[in-house]
Amino acid sequence: MNEMKLKAVDRRTFIIGAGASAAALAGLSSLAQATPQEAADFLAKLTGGKTPAPGKVKLEMPEIAENGATVPVKVTAETPQNEGDNCKSIAIIATKNPRPRMCVFHFTPRSGKATAAIRVRLATTQEVWAVAEMSDGSWHIAKTTVKVTIGGCGG
Fold it and tell me: How many Å apart are CA 117 and CA 72, to the nearest integer?
């Protein structure tokens, strides 16, 4: 039978180890959150450098999310979705999530209506953007800020 030998750890060694672990986790957590600049860079890459105009896309989210792990999102492009005038895609971008690109919905003129709904995870209170590409090559944007609380306590 294999015997396990436990080695006693003195208080000083424990505190040094715990401090080093905390420092490592703090360093990793800063890597896990994107910046608004990274979101802007992704937006520029997505649109080919074009500046999206406000309007033609609607973004619906709660102002306060009591649980950041499951936040409802609904996006709608205000177009007739026919061969001459339609929304090709809508991207959802979060400005402080680990990766700015949350999802992209693609539509065709036969989609009927350019509407989609999803639940997303938000890392912290942040601005969320819905960016729509139209068939005429134009881009449109809607923005909203969602306050993420912990248990509804206003964090």
Answer: 7
Block means of pLDDT (10 residues each) for the chain, 155 residues, are 64 69 53 79 95 96 94 95 93 94 94 93 94 96 94 49
Rounded Cα–Cα distance for residues 77 and 56 (Å): 6
Q: Which CATH architecture has domain 34-148?
A: Sandwich (2.60)
Residue 133, number of CB atoms within 10 A of its CB:
24
Give the chain's length.
155
Domain residue ranges of the chain, discontinuous segments joined by +:
34-148
Structure confidence at residue 12 (pLDDT): 72
| β-pair type (126-134, 87-94) | antiparallel
What is the structure's pLDDT at 111?
Answer: 83
Cite the DSSP H helix spans in the chain.
11-31, 36-47
Q: Which two tokens stand for residue 90?
A: 């809508």
